[in-house]
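Our consortium's second objective concerns turning raw sequence data into structural hypotheses that experimental partners can test. To show how far this objective has progressed, the report includes one record in full. It was chosen at random from the queue rather than selected for favorable results. The single chain below, 157 residues long, was entered without modification.
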Amino acid sequence: MTSIPDVHTPAKAPVSPARQATGLLAYLFAGLYFGMVLVKSEAASWYRIQEMFRFESFHMFGLIGSAVVTGLISTALLRRFGHTRSGEEVAVKPKDRGWVRYVLGGLTFGLGWGLAGVCPGPIFVLIGAGVWPMLITLLFALLGTYLYGLLQQRLPH
């Protein structure tokens, strides 16, 4: 078993409360905008998700494809210019080799998505839109996250 080398990290410069508040506001507004986009694009619609799983509509595949392209571009930009607002370096670790963890993770994610009719992102959007049964989905998503934390050492990574 190989050990991870100890890497010295430079001391962080203190962030002023005003800069921290503006950063939090920026994230809040970005999240609100993203939530509105999810609702308006019908990405949070159970009916659209069912259409996708039945191969009846291209709508969700187009949304997912555009998300993949956005993720690829964002990751490339992070690797090239990777630093935070405070100047800390952001390093994108390459994915581990092997397929078992990705297949198991994808099956778990897909099973939850199919049963709940929603992936984790829109849960909060739907609760904000007044779809109160999503509180049950949120509860089980949090329970699943907690259980993963307990079992993490025993799972294939």
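The partners drew two points from this record. The mean pLDDT is 82. The radius of gyration is 19 Å. Both points have been shared with the crystallography group to help prioritize constructs.
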